[in-house]
Amino acid sequence: MTRRDTDLTDNDMNDLNAFEEQLQSFVGAEAGPFLAWDRVNRAMIRHWCEAMGDANPAYYDAAVAAQLGAPTGAVVAPPTMMQAWTMTGFAGEHPPGSDTRESMPVLPIFDQQGYAAVVATNCEQEYLQPICEGDDINGRSSIESVSSRKTTGLGVGYFVTQLTEFRNQRNEVVGNMRFRILKYKPHSAAS
Fold first, then answer.
1. Alpha carbon separation from 1 to 16, 156, 172 (Å, rounded)
2. Please, are residues 144 and 187 in contact by the beta-carbon 8 Å criterion?
3. 155 contacts 117 by C-beta, under 8 angstroms
4. Distance CA 78, CA 57 (A)
5. What is the tens place of the pLDDT at every residue in 18-75?
């Protein structure tokens, strides 16, 4: 219980408990696959590497990439690009054939209860095998956890962790990403 929970009435606590039970019902909720607009390609790899200042020769030279297991004549993509292949465009749409559901279906429930502010808190990626030129990447996500209510410097809210598994066209897992956000009600200016 947070300091402010002591100010809640029994009805408020019952409502809070029911809300938290509803949040927990989303743990394990899955969505996907979310497909890529484009296969892994040198042009996007080059743009990424230029923006990041990454001159690793495996991203430019097929002979070096072959030593990492890339097919003949192909380069590998920086592992940090894993998510980039399946991200939506500015319009928020995935390519045809992708799941059209919300990848974090718990978010509208927070908004309905006034937890409308959001901040990304951390992202962890695990790279399991090289992503190579020509690969067709897709992602599937699930809600891994929803915390109990927390009081933070920003406000009162909940941490939500989404786990996304990325696969190639051979259905091999190339990596995983845990993305955590805080959905919260900001502290009032008077607090």
1. 11, 12, 43
2. no
3. yes
4. 11
5. 999 999 999 999 999 999 999 999 999 999 999 999 999 999 999 999 998 899 999 9
Choose the CATH number for 3-39+78-186 among 3.30.420.240, 3.10.129.10, 2.60.200.30, 3.40.50.300: 3.10.129.10
Q: In which region does residue 113 sit, left (phi positive, over 0), alpha (psi from -120 to 50) or beta (all else)?
A: alpha
Q: Distance between CA atoms of 95 and 101, rounded to whole angstroms?
A: 13
| pTM higher than the cut 0.85 | yes
d(CA 100, CA 10): 40
91 pLDDT band, cuts 50/70/90, is confident
Q: Could you tell me which residues come within 8 angstroms of residue 163 by beta carbon, excluding any fewer than 6 positions away?
A: 141, 142, 143, 144, 176, 177, 178
